[in-house]
Amino acid sequence: MSSKFGARIIAMEQRNSLLLVVVVAICAIAVGLQAADEKKANYTTHILALPDHGQGTITMDYIAYDPKTGYVWVPAINVGSVDVVDTSNGSVREISGFATKEIEVQGRKRFQGPSGVSIGEGVVYIGDRADSSICAIDERTLARKTCGHIDATPDGVVYVAPTKEVWVTVPGDKSVRILDSQTLSQKEKLTFEGQPEGYSVDAKRGRLYMNYEDNDLTTAIDLKTHKTVAKWQPSCGKEGPHGLSVDQATGYLFVACSTQVEVLDAGHNGEKLSSIDTGDGVDDLYYSPATHTLYVGAAKDKRLTVARVDAAGKLSLVAVVQTQEGARNGVVTKDGTVYLAHSQLGQLAGLVVVSPSKK
């Protein structure tokens, strides 16, 4: 066989190999797209309307799900009310009478009002930015019970069951206020090196995890001594970390960045175990320990990412679902239905509801 003929044979074999690689790649892409379409098809979406009283939109931040009653609690900031959704039938009851006020921030006018929410024992705690109040609402009758006030603007509100306290984050003066859960009177003020943003209680380890949004830092605070016992860098970038959720069984801590979620091994040394891209516009996230599933709404990219974490803390994609612009901060019911806060002017005021399709 001549060298020229042998060279042609080798070239033909190389082209055939390349063609095979291209065909395999195209097939893999097709299978991947089909799998993605199948994952998307597993969910349906709709908007659950809420009363906006002529405002045209409802400004929302945190929302909360109470598994004991099946209610989703939605503070409507600009309306001055809290909407309570019965997830068994979609009915809505409204608790009115919360304070509101209009302020100007960087040349833009915005409303302050009820925004923080946390499920307690028989009551739900609501923080109101307009009058710096924290009120307890009966979780079933929706009757307003005790209210307390602090001397600064509250942001996040979290019930801490191990100590029967309510912790309130105040980014404006880099503090957390600790309230008695019964009287809602302030017991202590803790000051920090950065602006508190996001929180998650780990009763097993006696800790509250909290981010410093302005320092790109995640910390662990001892619930008894109130000392910061660990600090980790989630590497979220200049916008910093936002929401948090913890798997108390494993100690895995899920940190929401603006475009992704990081998994830290908070039960040990805080090592970064994995991450997943979520699209832009993430604020808070929701983790279901029963199914080891993470739900993350991205407001700017109009999508919900559903991911599962394995025993080693590795995240894998389950589904990406198209939602609505402004949809974020989801909560998840027992049947896997996701309710997302939705604050977008010009669109129907309400929650974006993402439901697993019934087969």
With strands numbered from the N-terminus, the spatial order across the biggest sheet is: 1-30-29-28
Helical amount among residues, as a percent range? 10-25%
Mean pLDDT: 89
The level 1 CATH classification of the largest domain is Mainly Beta
Largest sheet: 4 strands, antiparallel
Task: State the end-to-end CA separation.
Answer: 63 Å
What's the total number of strands?
30
Which homologous superfamily in CATH is the superfamily of the largest domain?
YVTN repeat-like/Quinoprotein amine dehydrogenase
Concise overview:
The protein is mostly beta strands and 359 residues long. The chain has three domains: 41 residues; 177 residues, Methylamine Dehydrogenase, Chain H (7 Propeller); 97 residues, Thrombin, subunit H (Beta Barrel), CATH 2.40.10.480.
What is the strand and helix layout of this fold?
Blueprint: H1 3-41, E1 43-49, E2 64-66, E3 71-76, E4 81-86, E5 91-95, E6 101-105, E7 108-112, E8 114-119, E9 123-128, E10 133-138, E11 144-149, E12 157-160, E13 165-170, E14 175-180, E15 186-191, E16 196-202, E17 207-212, E18 217-222, E19 228-232, E20 244-247, E21 252-256, E22 260-265, E23 272-277, E24 286-288, E25 293-298, E26 303-309, E27 315-322, E28 327-332, E29 338-342, E30 350-356
Antiparallel strand pairs: 1-30, 2-3, 3-4, 4-5, 6-7, 8-9, 9-10, 10-11, 12-13, 13-14, 14-15, 16-17, 17-18, 18-19, 20-21, 21-22, 22-23, 24-25, 25-26, 26-27, 28-29, 29-30
Task: Provide a descriptive summary of the structure in words.
- This protein is mainly β and 359 residues long.
- It folds into three domains: 1-41; 45-57 and 196-359, Methylamine Dehydrogenase, Chain H, CATH 2.130.10.10; 95-191, Thrombin, subunit H (Beta Barrel).
- Helix content is 11%, strand content 47%.
- The chain has one helix at residues 3-41; strands spanning 43-49, 64-66, 71-76, 81-86, 91-95, 101-105, 108-112, 114-119, 123-128, 133-138, 144-149, 157-160, 165-170, 175-180, 186-191, 196-202, 207-212, 217-222, 228-232, 244-247, 252-256, 260-265, 272-277, 286-288, 293-298, 303-309, 315-322, 327-332, 338-342, 350-356.
- A four-stranded antiparallel beta sheet has the order 1-30-29-28. A four-stranded antiparallel beta sheet has the order 2-3-4-5, with no helix packed on it. Strands 8-9-10-11 form a four-stranded antiparallel beta sheet, with no helix packed on it.
- Strand 8 and strand 9 form a beta hairpin.
- The longest helix has 39 residues, at 3-41.
- The model is unreliable at 1-41 (pLDDT under 50).
